[in-house]
Amino acid sequence: xxxxxxxxxxxxxxxxxxxxxxxxxxxxxxxxxxxxxxxxxxxxxxxxxxxxxxxxxxxxxxxxxxxxxxxxxxxxxxxxxxxxxxxxxxxxxxxxxxxxxxxxxxxxxxxxxxxxxxxxxxxxxxxxxxxxxxxxxxxxxxxxxxxxxxxxxxxxxxxxxxxxxxxxxxxxxxxxxxxxxx
Length: 182
Fold this sequence. Notes:
It is a single chain. The protein is 23% helix and 33% strand. The protein is an alpha+beta fold. The longest helix is centred in the N-terminal third of the chain and has 25 residues, at 2-26.
């Protein structure tokens, strides 16, 4: 009986280890898309969901981002949201391209006079965008930040689930995503 128990135990442990390795093999480090047409990307995006982060802690609804292409090919950014007292707050920044395909950006929300300071810009990688630029998945080289954005304030469930699957593939913990109303 002891030998049978050891055999079952060994098989169970090996099976669990195999499943664990398979799950890890299915995830890869986040990868930005090759190319983003910044003219098409510019405009208003509604945030559908995001991973919790300090700078969005006061937001309770109506989160959006507006992008404009500047003459120097940087992008101006205006992030807005509604806070608990009903007031809309916003933060202005600039996004600097980091690759030829414009899919990797560094973003700073510091005042213009302080944007030169090293290590004060956050990664903004477009991980997935549909061909019509209606839905985007944005993150970075780590799994710290993640946003699902849409041109409309609502996103159909099938499309949302598809973008969740992409995020999971890149190793993001989508169970922590926060969805706020518009």
